[in-house]
Write the structure tokens for this entry.
Amino acid sequence: MDSSHIKVIFEDYLKTVNSNYALLINGSWGSGKTYFWKDSLCKICSENNYKTLYISLNGLSKIETLDYQLKIKLIPLLNKLDSKKAISLLNLLKNIGGKIIQSKYNVSPEEILKDVEVDTALFSKQVICFDDLERCNIPLSEVLGYINNFVEHKNSKVLILSDESKIQKEENKNDTTYNSIKEKVIGRILNFNNDLNLIFPFFINKYEKSEPEFSYLLDQNKSFILEILAEFKEENLRNLSFYLESLNKLYPVFKSNIEFKKEIILFVLIITLEFKRGNLNSNDYKNFNDFDLLNPSYVMFNFDPSFSLLSKKAEKTPIEESELEKFYKRYLTNYIQDYFFYPAVYQFILTGYLDIEKFTNELKSRIPIEPTIENATFTNVATNKFRQLSNEEFNQNIERFLVFAKQGKYDVPDYLQISKFLNFYSENSIIDQTKDEIRKILLEGLHIAKENIIPVSRMRNFSFDMDQNPTDDTILRDKIIEYINASQKEFEKEKSNSLLIAIAENDLEQMKDIFDGYNVNKELFLNFSAEILWAHLQNSENKTITQFTNLLKQRHSFSNIKSYFLDNAVLFKDLILCIKNSESTGNLQDMLKKELIVQLEEICERMK
């Protein structure tokens, strides 16, 4: 129902004398019902000379607690009522004062107000809003009976906010009779659907004063944001608020690369929705679920039915959709051209930690370099652009492409995609080379390309061990994985050794930079022994040991460190033994050693 219609019905309800029923606004959690009450309906109450009382039923398990909450909220109205009602309320307060005396005898707050009578006149110009009915732990028959007392006997106007779909589920579980109970209390149910076109400007205005540049970005991209929200069927205002706040945190980094705003706006929303809908959690921060593999070419080879029909190895029997394909269909059917996977953003959404340097480097990698003949050829025949070529252009590009691939002109990860396209062309008799001949060419090129392999921590789309397609050349894939794993091991070893060098040189700033780079990454301590680490620390200056202790404490300051750093526990325990077995120096270093041991023991204890 349109919100403007609800306003009309609500105002008519206020003007109805002796209505003797309550209104219920039904809508999903986070749809904006509470905001609608506070922003719109409260104004209508005021315009019609009604006071408002708001009570959340969330988590309440006893009627006595509900009654206590309501009576407590009546007390501030003392100075707002006419004299006759003020006297009545004064009597109420006197009664409360008498009850408080009993509190010395361990009487609960609910008991203090249990027998206090409130003048019915107090409620005649009150609109009481009971929110979160579906989250109330009091039996429905009791809470609706309590509400009915205000409607039937106190002549109050009552509004209930609820998500009835949740109540129906509980009703099925508990075999209760919600529908029969509500008929006695609720006169009309109004189904609430928020209009993001009307609400979104309020979110933009929220940032207008504090973050004017970001507010302008939202305003300029409002149409696209509303379009993808509608496409993904997302109306939850809490999720929208989380999404915009995440964008706000990222904006200072990507505003200098504003040409990528569209793909960032899209990617942040997709990962936010996966996170908020329970498909991802904080422990997935290192598991990209192959989302980083998705691009137009990957989709064409794996999810495009028309392309699969041309492949001689296409499965004749239907294959169950993978989780990756489901993800693609949820979000990217119409947006794959605008999709780009940012690992730093993915990890930020899931953990709350933004690695600014990493995100900056990812943005830099998006800046187009001066096109080379090798890159142009790759784009022409190793992406879905090949269909736009003439026969002559295609043949010329393929001839160059085979030469460049054999010369190792492409990055190691690209060779799997090159193989996919060349094998596809071979199967469809578009080129003369057989699969074996193609493999020989590519293996030769791979051997050359591995000498210039990009360190894996800065590389995208390298999860080939997960990206298994029946049409792939498994021999080539295995060789790519071998080269990438070797590069990864060497890269991590190099980074870990840089920590030892920083300790040896007493470079406190470099130590901090290294720790920051491995903020939630266990690999920092996986490439050397406790003995080597302690040898460097023992020979360092006192300020270096202090810095190391402080950085350890900061690195392990959050709650679920076991999920991230459990593999470091053995080294930390060995390091404790190394320190304890080292000779006493009889000076300040002994105290610093004890402080380091205490910190290490605390970390190990929290990892149990």
